Amino acid sequence: MLEDIRALKEENRRLKEENELGLRAQATLMDDLRRLKQENSAYSEKLDQLYRDNTNGNLMVKQKDTQIMRLSSDLESAKLKIKSLEQTIEMMKLQQSSAQTQSSQPLQQDAFTSPFASPKRFSLSRLSLHELSTRVDRLLIENGAAFFNNLDETKSNSAEDQSDTGFKSASALSADAPTVTESKNVGGGEENWRKATEVTAQLKARIEKMKQRNRLVNR
């Protein structure tokens, strides 16, 4: 009987030890489970972050592709504009070369017969800007001197001959100077001079416009 009791006590002690070992193992397993859950949560967060990064990367790639397409289109447009500008520059060079060739040839004597002659008599585009400006300035100076000399001569002839109407031809001007349109009377001289000045100013204005256009093209 005592042996049975001792055996039961021993069995009970052994079971308690096994139970304690099981509890310790269970606690260890619980700790491992918590650790694994935490690691799983961290990995899940990293995976979500990777998904977000991948999505953002795809969006950025699409944006870059769109930018590349737009830049390619802008590049093609720029190439077309450059080509157009180069063609324009070549045309301007050809026109300038042609104008210099034309200006280097002797001008006909009647090329500038009047400061307000018809535009059909000459073409501004066939003259270089510097040459045209110089000729307009010379036109103004020579017309002023020649006109008043002619006006004084007309007054003198009118005083000597009352039957004369005061009409005087502008052929008294020099061969190199442009002629002024004939006056019907002595009082019309100032009107002719005013008209000549206005036409000269118009010519200079056209020259300035041509210069501005050339400067804009050169930019």
Measured as a percent range, the helix fraction is over 70%
Question: Any low-confidence stretches, pLDDT <50, length ≥5?
Answer: 107-129, 144-148, 158-187
Mean pLDDT: 70
Helical/strand content category:
mainly alpha
What is the radius of gyration computed over CA atoms, rounded to a whole number of angstroms?
Answer: 52 Å
Annotation field: number of helices:
3
Number of strands: 0
Distance between the termini: 122 Å
Q: Order of helices and strands, N to C?
A: HHH
Q: Which descriptor suits the 3D outline?
A: rod-shaped
How can the largest sheet be summarized?
Answer: none
Strand content: under 5%
Organism: Metschnikowia pulcherrima
Biased composition (Low complexity): 95-109
Protein name: Stu2 C-terminal segment domain-containing protein
Pfam family, one: Stu2_CTS
Keywords:
mainly alpha, rod-shaped, 219 residues, 0% strand, single chain
What would you say this structure looks like, in words?
With 219 residues, the chain is mainly alpha-helical. It has a domain of 109 residues. It is built from three helices and no strands. Helix 2 packs antiparallel against helix 3. The chain is rod-shaped and about 160 Å long. The protein starts with a helix and ends with a helix. About 26% of the residues have low confidence. This is Stu2 C-terminal segment domain-containing protein.
